[in-house]
C-alpha cells in the first residue's frame, strides 16, 4: 500500500482532512493507506516508508511557524521521490520551500473555502495515483488492467491464464493466484505488452511459470489451480522446444 501521512495540530481540521483522504481512497479503491495522522514530527519520521509516500503537512504546529517546513526538509532528505503538500495559512513561506529545494506537489492555503480545500486534496491524491499508474505501466514485472474508471495492478508472476470471453467479445478473462477478473481488452495488445506470456492459441495467453504438466499428444496444458488450456498445432512445436530448453 502506498502510504499517506497527515501532519496537523488543529483537531477539527485534522479530522476533516482525515475524512477527505480516507473517502477518496475508499471510493476509488486506490492501493493507498492513510498510515499516520499526528501533530508529532517524530511519529511521522518513524513511520516513513523506505521508498515513497505522500505527506500533507501543516506549516505551523503550536508556536513553531516552520514545523512543517522542518519536517518536509527531513522527509525530502530521506525520501527524494516523496510527494509533499503543504496546507497552511502562511503563503509567505512558499518562497522558503524553493530555497530549501523541497519542491512541494502543492501549496494549499487554509483561508480558502472547505470545498476548495477538499478539491485540492482530492486532486493531489489523484495526481499521485496517476503517476503510480504510469510507473506501473512501465514496469515489466507488474500486470495492469482497467475496469471502468479504476486501475488494478499486481505482480505479473501471479498471472496464470488470460483468455478471451466467448460470451462477451472484447473482454478478457483473467485467472491468477488468488484472483479472477474480467475486463475490456484483447489478447493481441496484451501479448505485445507482456512478451513473457506465451500465446497457446488464438484465445489464450499463459504464464509458463505455472505449468504443472503438458500432454503433447492431446496438446493440453495443466496449469496451477487445476486450470487446463489447449495448445494449437502450430504453437505445440514452439512450446515443446521451450520446455525442452528449460530442462
Structural class: alpha/beta
Beta-strand content bin: 25-35%
Q: Care to count the β-strands?
A: 15
Largest sheet: 5 strands, parallel
In the CATH hierarchy, the architecture of the largest domain is 3-Layer(aba) Sandwich
Choose one word for the global shape: elongated
Summed up, the domain count is: 2
Q: What level of helicity do the residues show?
A: 25-40%
Q: What's the CATH H-level homologous superfamily of the largest domain?
A: Response regulator
Strand order of the largest sheet: 2-1-3-4-5
Our measurement of the CA-to-CA distance between the termini, rounded to an integer number of angstroms, reads 38 Å
Number of helices: 7
Within the CATH hierarchy, at the fold level, what is the topology of the largest domain?
A: Rossmann fold
Uncertain spans = none
Mean pLDDT equals 88
* Helix-strand pattern: EHEHEHEHEHEEEEEHEEEEEH
Rg value:
24 Å
CATH class of the largest domain: Alpha Beta
What does this structure look like?
There is one protein chain. This protein has 247 residues and is of the alpha/beta class. It has 2 domains: 2-137, Response regulator (Rossmann fold, 3-Layer(aba) Sandwich); 142-246, OB fold (Dihydrolipoamide Acetyltransferase, E2P), CATH 2.40.50.1020. 36% of the residues lie in helices and 31% in strands. The chain has helices at 11-28, 41-47, 67-78, 94-99, 114-137, 187-193, 233-246, and strands spanning 2-7, 32-38, 54-58, 83-88, 106-109, 142-147, 150-155, 159-164, 171-176, 179-184, 198-201, 204-206, 211-215, 220-223, 228-230. It has a 5-stranded parallel sheet, sandwiched between helices. Strands 10-9-8-12-11 form a 5-stranded antiparallel sheet. A 3-stranded antiparallel sheet has the order 13-14-15, with no helix packed on it. Strand 4, helix 4 (94-99) and strand 5 (106-109) form a beta-alpha-beta unit. Helix 1 crosses helix 5 (114-137). The longest helix is centred in the middle third of the chain and has 24 residues, at 114-137. It is elongated and about 80 Å long. The relative contact order is 0.09. The model has no long low-confidence stretch (mean pLDDT 88).
